[in-house]
Amino acid sequence: MASKEERKLAILLLLRQRRKRRNKYKKRFWIKDILKRRKELEEYHRLIQEMRLNDPESFYQYFRMTPSRFDLLLGLVGPYLKKNSLYREPVSPEERLAVTLRFLATGDSQQSIAFSFRLGHATVTKILEESSEALWSALQQFIKPPTTTSEWEKIATDFWQLWNFPMCCGAIDGKHVVMQCPSRDGSSFFNYKGTHSTVLLAVCDARYLFTLVEIGSSGRNQSLKQSLIDV
What we know:
- By secondary structure, this protein is mainly alpha-helical.
- It has two domains: 33-140, no CATH class; 145-230, no CATH class.
- Helix content is 54%, strand content 11%.
- It is built from eleven helices and three strands.
- The protein has helices spanning 4-24, 33-36, 38-41, 44-54, 56-63, 67-81, 93-106, 110-116, 121-139, 149-163, 224-230, and strands at residues 171-178, 197-204, 210-218.
- The chain has a three-stranded antiparallel sheet with strand order 1-2-3, covered by helices on one side.
- β2 and β3 form a beta hairpin.
- The radius of gyration is 25 Å and the shape is extended.
C-alpha cells in the first residue's frame, strides 16, 4: 500500500500533467493573422461594395435582393444589431446583416461563410443567432393575417385578376431545415426524407405579401401543408 508521501507525490504529478495539457491548447492569438486584414480583403468590404456600385444584377444574385431593398431592411433591423465593445471594434450592423442574408440565400456552411467574411466560426454562429432574432422582431409587424371575409375575398380577387387563378386565397411554400435530433425527442422531428428537420412555411397573397407563417413545426409532418393545418 502506497505511503502518504507517495500519494501526495502522485497527486502533484497528476496536477502538473493536467496544467501542461491546458497550456498546450491555450489560445496563442487574440486575433488570427488571416483575420487582421478583414476590412481590406473580406467579401463585404471588397466584393459586395463593388457589386453595389457597379453590378446591381450580381448584387441581387448574391443576396436575393436589390441594394435598395438591402438598405431598407438594414434600416429596420440595424438598431437591433448595433454592438458596443471596449476591447476591439465590433462587427457593424451592415456586415452582420450581410453575413446573415448570404447564409440564408445559399444555405452554405457556417465555416464557409466565416472564411468568406474573415470572421471566426463562433462569431458567425453568434451573428446568425442574433440577426435571426432581430429580423423576426423587426419584420413580424408586416405579417398581417386576414381577419374578415372581405379581406379573404380581396386576396382571391387579386389572384384571379393578376394571375388567372380562380378561388385562390394564398400561395404556399415551405422548407425542411435539416437539424440534429433534439435530446430525448424521439422521432418527433424525423421526416419522410430520412433526416431530422424543422419546418418553415409561409403563405403570401397575389402581391407577394406574407399573410401567414409557421416556424418550427416538427419535421415528422408528411407534408409542409400539414403545418398550415396545425396553425
